[in-house]
Amino acid sequence: MFARQDHPVLGPVTVLGPPLRLDGDGFVASAPTPPFGSETEALLRWAGFGEANVQRLLAGGATRARTA
Questions:
Q1: pTM over 0.85
Q2: Which secondary structure element, helix H or strand E, spans residue 16, and what is its range?
């Protein structure tokens, strides 16, 4: 029921995993989510904002990006 994972900020952590196994690998705990804010720039670009507008939003404090 427990799975060990490497979290990008916290390091090694133990998380709950599925309590049963099916054929083969069965259920497998998913990878940890990226740190909050680490995908800000990519999401803004995906939403159609150009590089200049992404940088303007970051510089103006409308949003912020986190690198780790």
A1: no
A2: strand 11-16
C-alpha distance from residue 43 to each of 18, 50, 52, 61, 66 (Å): 30, 11, 14, 16, 13
Structure confidence by residue, pLDDT tens digits, 42-64: 999 999 999 999 999 999 989 88
* Nearest Cα to Cα of residue 59 among 35, 41, 34: 41
Residue that is written with structure tokens 């800000």 in the block: 40
* CA distance linking residue 53 with residue 40, whole number of Å: 13
Token output for 40: 């800000």
